[in-house]
């Protein structure tokens, strides 16, 4: 599985913020607030959607109408391997 630097940053940030379950999930706008890098909303959205299709992240509980994301066990295992 080939991931970009932005993909790995997204995974690492979810892990760092302890976003590891359906109820413990992170909205993209809050992701951007807590992440100190220069990733833009559209980039984060695309990366998280890609990671979801790979099974590395999943949707969490909706926050109003906003999607939230959390890292799956498969995502945590991937990070432990790199």
Task: Describe the overall structure.
This protein is mainly α and 82 residues long. The protein is 50% helix and 11% strand. The protein contains four helices and three strands. It has helices at 5-16, 28-34, 41-53, 73-81, and strands at residues 26-27, 57-59, 68-71. A three-stranded antiparallel sheet has the order 1-3-2. β2 and β3 (68-71) form a beta hairpin. α1 (5-16) crosses α3. The mean pLDDT is 92.
Quick description:
The chain is mostly helical and 82 residues long. Helices cover 50% and strands 11% of the residues.
Strand % is 5-15%
Please list the strands of the largest sheet in the order they lie side by side.
1-3-2
Q: Can you count the helices?
A: 4
Helix content: 40-55%
Class by SSE composition: mainly alpha
Query: Regions with pLDDT < 50 over 5+ consecutive residues?
Result: none
Key features?
50% helix, 82 residues, mainly alpha, three-stranded antiparallel sheet
Secondary structure topology:
Blueprint: H1 5-16, E1 26-27, H2 28-34, H3 41-53, E2 57-59, E3 68-71, H4 73-81
Antiparallel strand pairs: 1-3, 2-3
